[in-house]
Specification:
Elements: E1 2-3, E2 6-7, E3 13-15, H1 24-32, E4 38-44, H2 45-49, H3 53-57, E5 68-73, H4 77-88, E6 94-99, H5 104-107, H6 119-132, E7 137-142, H7 152-161, E8 167-170, H8 184-191, E9 200-203, H9 209-219, E10 223-226, H10 236-246, H11 255-272, H12 275-288, H13 299-307, H14 311-320
Parallel strand pairs: 3-10, 4-5, 5-6, 6-7, 7-8, 8-9, 9-10
Antiparallel strand pairs: 1-2
Helix pairs in contact: 1-11, 4-6, 7-8, 9-10, 11-12, 11-14, 13-14
């Protein structure tokens, strides 16, 4: 599979862009465990144009992460084009356009999934961004705004006609947010539309190798994107790859090895930010990690782990956990 001139291995696995999750500290770990492409957090076009420092930090890329996409979002074509040019200066491999973020503060302002209610403007944004930059431009969106407007099959053709070089589809509507099950049937319809020539990437509820294989085999997608299933579990890419290649589900890492990776993520976050902020930023991953699920009487330990304020204190707690 290729996006523009970027060649990927058979059945590639991508790390989904996630706010407050896919920073360099986490992306590097996912890449280490086999993510074939990673994405930055959402980058606000308006904030980028205004030189907001926190937003500019999101453009920090490492060569070890490649190929990597910078994902931008916004609601005005001119601003998106200008932001894309700024993002291009950071030298990503791809510029990705976010038309799928469902959160109220984004969608209600007409950005992200909000553009599913203004398709002409969405298409205008794609067109002007494609003309503004030399990097390949890709798109991520959803099935439609709600149950009564699942427009993705026709919309996909329009997105392709505007010059997008790949399309990622999250198998839910904006109204669903992250509830219910992702609908991969419609993703498959897009992929099997004979008019579609660009790669189709499927996204939604892929948390196991078995599910990833089903998505490739049953729906024919060119790549599978993994999002929430990777939080606190960057090794999911190695687990899924192992299943795709030999059909086994043997744990890739032991319990002790998983703890070491979680600690490494904390260290990466501290290097990226500082000790206080790095630990705070890591808590979401520690809380979500399947490493500690099912351990009897773990509640008090979990609370202590999420309250720790120094690296030494946190690591002592993690090291004390046994199974």
């Amino acid at each position: 599979m290729k996006i523009a001139n970027i060649k990927f291995p058979d059945k590639p696995l991508f790390l989904a862009p996630m706010e407050d999750v896919t920073d360099p500290a986490f992306r590097l770990l996912c890449k280490k465990f086999g993510a074939d492409m990673v994405y930055t957090e959402f980058v606000s076009a308006d904030a980028l144009i205004r030189n907001v420092k926190r937003t500019e930090q999101k453009l920090t890329l490492h060569d070890e992460e490649r190929p990597i996409a910078i994902q931008i979002y916004g609601r005005e074509p001119d601003a998106m084009a200008e932001a894309a040019k700024i993002a291009e200066e950071a030298n990503p491999d791809i510029i990705d356009l976010n038309f799928g973020c469902p959160v109220k503060r984004v969608a209600s302002k007409g950005a992200g999934a909000g553009l599913l209610r203004d398709i002409p403007k969405m298409l205008e944004i794609i067109t002007v961004v494609v003309k503004a930059v030399n990097k390949p431009v890709t798109v991520k969106t959803r099935l439609g705004w709600d149950e009564n407007s699942k427009i993705i099959v026709d919309l996909a053709e329009q997105i392709q006609d505007c010059g997008a070089q790949a399309l990622c589809i999250h198998g839910r509507t904006r109204s669903q947010m992250y509830k219910g099950e992702a609908d991969w049937i419609l993703i498959g319809e897009v992929k099997n539309n004979p008019r579609m020539k660009i790669p189709i990437i499927g996204n939604g509820d892929v948390t196991t190798g078995e599910r990833a294989k089903e998505c490739f085999d049953k729906y024919g997608v060119d790549a599978v994107m993994i999002g929430r299933g990777s939080i606190g579990r960057p090794w999911i890419f190695a687990e899924v790859r192992q299943y795709l290649e030999n059909g086994t589900t043997t744990d890739v890492l032991s319990f002790e090895e998983q703890k070491e990776i979680l600690k490494q993520h904390v260290l990466n976050s501290i290097d990226w930010l500082d000790e206080r902020r790095g630990i705070l930023h890591s808590r979401r991953h520690l809380a979500a990690s399947p490493t500690f699920k099912g351990i009897p009487h773990f509640r008090d330990t979990r609370i202590a782990m999420l309250r720790a304020t120094t690296k030494e204190e946190l690591f002592e707690i993690i090291d004390s956990v046994k199974i």
